[in-house]
Amino acid sequence: MQAFVQQLIYGVQLGSLYALIALGYTMVYGVLRLINFAHGDVYMVGAFVGYYACTRWLPFRDIAAFPDAAARNIALLVVVLGLAMALCAVLGVVIERFAYRPLRNGLHAADAHFWGLVIAIPAAGAIASLRTPTGLAAFAVLGVGFGFALRPVMAWITRRSPPSPSRLNALITAIGVSLVLENGGLVVFGANPNFIPTLVPERTFHLPGAVQVGSSQLAILLVSLALMAGLRHIVLFTRRGKAMRAIAHDIEAAKLMGIDTDRVISFTFALGAALAGAGGVMVAALTHVKITPLFGLQPGIKAFVAAVLGGAGNIPGAALGGILMGLAEAFVAGSQYSTFRDAIAFCILIVILLVRPAGLLGRNVPEKV
To answer: What is the pLDDT of residues 300-314, one digit of tens each?
Structure first.
């Protein structure tokens, strides 16, 4: 019984992280009917923002040498959480603006500068490491230069290429953005794994029945629940949340009602990316795992399965799917079949697609063809 409760606690904590990422998948799918495969890489960016903030940008103190600095480090961790969420939200807006919006509305001259910056990443990396001021300056100069060079090409493409709202094109673009982020991460952050050292004292709480809960587990669970409650409030009780629901119901009718759909879609991407960034920075800072540019690949896939399990486009379903995914993985990891802990996500995906393709809380919606 003690082992069961222990795995239950671990599964809920793990599931809350999956739920945070799955909410981003399901919100984007709800408004655009798009699977944003780059969402797991935003989680990776959040982890790296946490790494650099904790080790270089902010004045954290070594908790082993300065035990009295615990309160200061906890306060700084809250700042890091907000910083990672803000930067990931900006990244989500940039991805939507320059990768997905051109498919809906056509290309603009500003898109040339974005792709110029993307092209500049390997060039600047070859000149100097992007982690140095020289490398960043080279990246900016080359990006602006490539952007101006691409403006005539972009204008030529714009005249000959109408908007392409095809879901297949959007899906291919999502995979491309994911590859750009992963390989851009290899150039910018390097392939070596990074770790965040222990910044706050770790305590273990003893519950009845010899069950133990770590302070980091408790912190991740409480912050995740608070963020999900905040998201629920935004979606249900704010004007922007109502606009999101209107677009999810019928985007064309929402346009006719005067809703700025592009702005609301950008807000949706920002919201989902901020949640993914929060998950990444919490895992990186509190569990001391290895952080690499492929850090978000596996959690992203599992969160995608969680979104499908709960019902793609259904926000409570994504939260439920995340918790169920975490529980399934925790109990498999605690059994004699622990080597299959990662395979359980794919088994669940196959079963749910065969038995209930719309997900546990989703419903089948007929589509016009």
So the answer is: 888 888 888 888 778
